[in-house]
Amino acid sequence: MPAGKDRIIVIGGGIQGCATAYFLAKRGQDVTLLEKDHIGRHASGVNAGGVRRLGRDPVEIPLSLASMDIWQSLQGHIGDHADAFHPCFYLKVALDEDGQALGVDRINALLKAGFKHEIWLEDWEVKRRLPHLSCPTYGGILVEGDGWALPWRIVQGFASAAVKHGSRLVEGCRVVGIERGRDGWQLHTTKGLLEAAQVVNCAGAWAAGLSALAGDAAFPLSPYAPMLAVTDSRPGILPAVIGVLGQTLSLKQLHSGQFVIGGGIRARANLETSRGEIDIPALAASMDLATTLFTAITSARIIRCWSGIEGYMPDGLPVIGRGSQPGLVHGFGFSAHGFQLGPAVGEALADLVMGQQPRISLAPFSPSRFETT
Ligand SMILES: Cc1cc2nc3c(=O)[nH]c(=O)nc-3n(C[C@H](O)[C@H](O)[C@H](O)COP(=O)(O)OP(=O)(O)OC[C@H]3O[C@@H](n4cnc5c(N)ncnc54)[C@H](O)[C@@H]3O)c2cc1C
After folding, report:
1. Confidence band (pLDDT; 50, 70, 90) for 373?
2. Distance 45 CA to ligand 1 centre (A)
3. Residue 1 in this model has a pLDDT that exceeds 90
4. Average pLDDT over residues 151-171
């Protein structure tokens, strides 16, 4: 690889890194993406594929809405890979009065803040939309047009689009040292020394380590391994992605008829080995909830469980913004809900690198919000 003083290096081949490389390359920038394993190997390639605006922290909603704009025009960005996105509706049901109160309060708060994309459904409307539901509900929150995607293919789509626009992409290349020189960065990698004018830290659960290597802030990022299970194929009963208010569940049925269950419940993760554990009893709680909702799932056989490594911030919000060192930009800490945000985050990080104003305020995600004075 030639040395490049104007080069931008993106660390991390997940959805944030690939989308960032794509938006930078599309704008004619000299960009190289480094990935220690392979593209989509970690959270971005193995997640539940939930593409949801529903249930976002209110400060995250503008970013999520902006990302949805990109999801809705995905074909123009990643071509045929866009066929991996399946818009439907996303419904979080209330199973008791507490869940109902949570949902109604949320809708009222969102309306007050001017957000109308989440709407409240009464029990009969929930039943009409989910005729195979096996239990009574106390209503639920609906978002039309959210959906699910095959995550691996979407990440590959952004990576391919980045390459198509001239980005270099180096897999099996781990960044092991970052030094600030007089006029740029020197990156020590397992494939040699690289120079760059700017570095984008999209290293997922490993990003706090990269920040420390670069002499930037010590971020309170904790790694965990959210878990998922998939069943064998069953007749289609589920036209939507389902969650439960006040509880942790993501449930969908793929076009193959397989149910994908889990998402929020997490096991331990090891950053050294890049491996996540599976906590079967904890994952079983998601199964129980899924079968309470749809008894038809009881007859399905679980054929595989897995987990992916994700970085969590104490406030559940990502870190998106410039670091304290010149020429260093961070985008990490997505706390198990960063897949849907990926496209807009990539666009915003590209803006920051190029000294432009992102179209969405990134103030809630400021890297300096954990600094103590
Ligand atoms: C099981 C599971 C279910 C989920 N479900 C959903 C969902 O339904 N909807 C949703 O919106 N979100 C979901 N998420 C969260 C979502 O997957 C993540 O927030 C998102 O993928 C994070 O993307 P990323 O690019 O920041 O991280 P990653 O995908 O982890 O990418 C970071 C990359 O950086 C690389 N890297 C790290 N260190 C180095 C280094 N030193 N040198 C080079 N490369 C390095 C890593 O190998 C990794 O590939 C889920 C996550 C999991 C694990």
Report:
1. low
2. 7
3. no
4. 98
Averaged pLDDT of the chain:
96
Q: Is the pLDDT of residue 188 over 70?
A: yes
Q: Which atom of ligand 1 is nearest to the CA of 15?
A: 25
Domains and CATH numbers, the chain: 8-48+153-220+314-370 (3.50.50.60), 86-147+222-312 (3.30.9.10)
Separation of first and last alpha carbons in the chain:
42
- Asked if 20 and 349 count as a contact pair (C-beta separation under 8 A), the reply is yes
| pLDDT attached to residue 47 | 97
Q: Which stretches of the chain are DSSP H helices?
A: 15-26, 43-46, 61-72, 75-78, 97-112, 123-129, 151-164, 207-213, 280-293, 342-353
Query: Of all atoms in ligand 1, which is nearest to the CA of residue 41?
Result: 49
Token pair of 231, please? Answer: 């069943």
- Secondary structure of 184-222 in HEC code, one letter for each residue: EEEEEECCEEEEECEEEECCHHHHHHHHHHCCCCCCCCE
CB burial of residue 323 (10 Å; 0-12, 13-18, 19+): buried
**Ligand 1 nearest-atom number relative to CA 44:** 21
Identity of residue 41: R
Is residue 350 predicted with pLDDT exceeding 80? yes
Provide mean pLDDT across the span 150-179: 98
> What's the gap in Å between 137 CA and the centre of ligand 1?
33
**Which tokens in the block code for residue 63?**
């970013």
156 close to ligand 1 (CB < 6 Angstrom): no
Nearest alpha carbon to residue 263 among 237, 294, 295, 289: 289
Q: Is the ipTM of this complex over 0.85?
A: yes
CA 336 to chain CA mean position, Å: 6
